[in-house]
Design goal:
With 82 residues, the protein is an alpha+beta fold. Helices cover 40% and strands 12% of the residues.
Amino acid sequence: MIKGVNKKVIEINHPDSAYFERAVLYLKPNVKDVPPHAAQMETLDYFPPLPEKKKILSGWMLFLTGMAVSAAGCWIFMHFYP
């Protein structure tokens, strides 16, 4: 026996998520139309935005990298041009 289902569905694809590929939301039968703003607000309640990734090079890393490059440049200059 095949049971027919007639539901309105909102599918949210989020390929950047570390855990979920997509989410499927089923609208209640008495809902005819959902304003985009309301759908977005409801969705954000369940799926908050991902936090921003931290910068790879902090201030200290930039400083140490600059010092290493400067030291290498001085060594090359002193080694090849005595």
